[in-house]
Amino acid sequence: MDAIGLPLRLLAEFVGTALLVAVVVGSGIAAAQLSPDDVGLQLLENSTATVFGLAVLILLFGPVSGAHFNPVVTAADWLLGRRAGTGITAHHLAAYLAAQVAGGISGAWLANLMFDRRVFEIATKDRITIGHLVGEVVATAGLIALIFGLARTGRAALSAAAVGAYIGAAYWFTSSTSFANPAIAVGRILSNTFAGIAPASVPGFVGAELLGGAVAVVAVLALYPRVTPATAAPPSAGGLELDLPRSP
Amino acid sequence: MDAIGLPLRLLAEFVGTALLVAVVVGSGIAAAQLSPDDVGLQLLENSTATVFGLAVLILLFGPVSGAHFNPVVTAADWLLGRRAGTGITAHHLAAYLAAQVAGGISGAWLANLMFDRRVFEIATKDRITIGHLVGEVVATAGLIALIFGLARTGRAALSAAAVGAYIGAAYWFTSSTSFANPAIAVGRILSNTFAGIAPASVPGFVGAELLGGAVAVVAVLALYPRVTPATAAPPSAGGLELDLPRSP
Amino acid sequence: MDAIGLPLRLLAEFVGTALLVAVVVGSGIAAAQLSPDDVGLQLLENSTATVFGLAVLILLFGPVSGAHFNPVVTAADWLLGRRAGTGITAHHLAAYLAAQVAGGISGAWLANLMFDRRVFEIATKDRITIGHLVGEVVATAGLIALIFGLARTGRAALSAAAVGAYIGAAYWFTSSTSFANPAIAVGRILSNTFAGIAPASVPGFVGAELLGGAVAVVAVLALYPRVTPATAAPPSAGGLELDLPRSP
Amino acid sequence: MDAIGLPLRLLAEFVGTALLVAVVVGSGIAAAQLSPDDVGLQLLENSTATVFGLAVLILLFGPVSGAHFNPVVTAADWLLGRRAGTGITAHHLAAYLAAQVAGGISGAWLANLMFDRRVFEIATKDRITIGHLVGEVVATAGLIALIFGLARTGRAALSAAAVGAYIGAAYWFTSSTSFANPAIAVGRILSNTFAGIAPASVPGFVGAELLGGAVAVVAVLALYPRVTPATAAPPSAGGLELDLPRSP
């Protein structure tokens, strides 16, 4: 049942996170180039592409690694899984986080390469305000609550569409445009574009995301207090993994 | 079967309605800031974010409280359920309405906080015209007919996507931009922005919404006259609740 | 099995077609008012609202009348059903068409009322070109082939989403913006707005739609030559009707 | 089980590819005409129409031919199917490719006819840059990996929605706007419009697409190494074909 080896899982997390950042950054570059006169239109183009891209990446990599692509998702899976006797192990946790951050960085480079930019650059866009940090707590709490709420109610098959839709709302209703993901925040440092974030803003964003994740774990335990065997998350997959016949 | 206690239900209605108003108001603020030159584009950004956000909130809170978020939905559940021997009780009805209105107010405050606005402000946007009131009757009638039409034909699992889609149309085809919800109308008083409504316009809007709800109840009884046990709404959930294993 | 009486079916066709025209015309009025500087943006707003609205109306009225809302759909159901021994009868056909056209007209009036326009007006927008007529043949052929193709392959449950999506493409890729429906074409005469059509253009459009419907019937018979009992359209519902327990 | 004859399959591939190019080119013409001031808005209109149109065409023609519409999909089906003892034969492969390219050309002509342009014209838009070629490798690799990843995990029923969504992201996040299809690239030569491509750019694009397809085949074999009988692609359909009762 847990027949997919760690190397293949890490490959899926690395490539998936890289492509997710390439979607976010790449569509941001395209939007800024093609719609120079209206920042809202740029964000609409960027958010629409991200909704579709994120949903597809979850479909594609979910059966392999659970399609976390996000250190807060992986950490929440570890925390919530410890209670249920399921969830990712501490050893896998560290490896997942490393693959996600490496993927985030690589994705920004890929976007720069595709759009004929210098591969290495550092963003200068400062994003820290009180409102943005509150927004980032809300954005991450909503994301984590959604993922584990669906898993604990036997509806993980809806995750791809629902998580895509969530981001389509959160780009707009949170003032921070909903990074909600430390690996993506790190990757976005390396793109001095519409979607970039200055290095000095990243620690604040990551702190807010971790706080949001903690809020979500409490909310999930309050709202969905008991998990039956049928709805428990499979080991190491955050509840996102499909039950598929696989070879060892 | 009705193992979810009232306090948890009320928490879900409060948080869900708050987040719904935060989505509506927050994305409205973002749209007005980022696309200052085209009000239609602002509404497209606002409606797109609302479609996604509403669908996700129904998925997230549906299994707990039925995800009403709307006094007209709760009242219709009570009315229609009395006939079928199901539906929310009068006692729960009052508690639901209070949680929804409190949520609506809190959501506007959260949006103001995220966007670095004063937390307390009052909208000045007058919205009363004959056309807007007719629009609000149509908008609410359609929403209520859709929710209970799906429930009575065994398709409540489609509610999240369908209700989101409905609002995506109703923002545009009704002249009132489809508030269709007294709790949201009250919440929007507290945001002097794109999505706000002056207090003097709220009684008219709420009256039109109640009238629309009454029209929908008649339409539902005409179009779907008999409910079988298999399609009856579960107690206190307006037909939206999934049949989930839950702890007491 | 055919327990839903004709009067209830006609009510559903009348109200459904009226609301469909109200969505098309109403969102067109809103778009033209709110985005005066870019006709493409107006069409994007109009098409997005129509995608959502049409899908929802099919969900809502499908179980009652089959949610045809379109004389070409009803006529194709009659033609294709005669071969299979199913389909709407000639008597019901005439009543459906009358309800649809009356609904189309009423929907334009409702939109005018909601947007504080004169209730009675006649469109002056001439739409006849060779390209538009070719576009209208293509648009209607695609619509009819999709509806009956889904029905004949046992996927009628996808009709609401698929027909909505189809119109979202057809508004753009056909030069005529895809009326694809004589009842809607007649209704649009009565709105001198973005979505209107001059009376002199209607016969050409209706002729092209009928030709498109004929092309689609041939294509459906070629592509899906045999219908099994499991996939045959239920009587009088064009394959769109769900199998629901109903009272007489 | 393989009861659908080759002629009907080729008809489906021809008409489906033609309509796909008509959607891409036609909506591009409409967008450029209606939104002359913002190229990003044009691309948003074009990509939205393509998302919807592609999903619908896969639904419509999938049960007949597998809805490849793309020589790289057909070639990958042949390559991957040889291992599993399934997949399209070399003889069918050549016929599919011919039908797809003929469809691509015809679709451009149809779009020109609908929009009252000269039927025969040659695009002058040069699209070759290093970034565009990298983008085209990424775009095609993602498309092929998605299609066969879904098929090998028993989720081919999601292909229509997922492939549509993928293109909605790839139009934006790849610098090449994601042609990802040699038959469409050839068809777009014949439209000197927004969506056109100069003949001199086509060999580079096709080469990049084939390279992307090869990358995807390797990725699919790595990520989904074993195929069970239940998830194997049916003969000649690339895993996209539904299991339908059909006549000989």
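qc> Helices of chain C lie at 6-34, 39-65, 71-84, 90-114, 130-152, 159-173, 182-189, 202-223.
qc> done
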